[in-house]
Amino acid sequence: MKRDLKSRLIGILLLLFLGLLLFTPLGFYLRVYANRILSRNPVPVEERQQQVLEDYDWSLRTLDGEAYDFEDCKGKLTFINFWATWCPPCIAEMPSLEKLYDDYGKEVNFLFVARDREERVEAFLKKNGYNLPVYYERGLVPSQIYYGGLPTTFIISSEGRIVLSTRGSANWDGEGTRNLLDSLLTRSPPP
Hints:
seven-stranded mixed β-sheet; 5 helices; 7 strands; elongated; Glutaredoxin; alpha/beta; 2 domains
């Protein structure tokens, strides 16, 4: 009888703990922290497997409401990150993305494509002091860079080759990413 009661109590406590992790802000931030710890360094696509982006027909809108044509990225080294404020892995990688943008923003064309409500994105950026160029989709994403999961990141060379395609949280401020961008910048003119 006591063993049954103890098992039920442990089960209830486990359910309460899982509920805390899944359905509260504390759980959200615990998942963000866990993603930061578990973030890996992104790995470039092997050269023989790199696709050339053929479709630049994609309309975007800036945070300020101005139209942006993805065609403007043609011939430029471009970094695209799909994210949302409700996505713990997305939030986990934001500090490293901000550092990368701060260091390469003048040389690399960055597109942070938010799949979220504008007011939430603006509040998040302001609260955290992020100065990232955020865009919203106005048309269909080219099929070669479409993936439904978040976060998803692509680096496209100035020749249009998809040199990096990563899903999930990553450490973007690492030596590997910086070396990749530096090597691509030596082969391409700045945007």
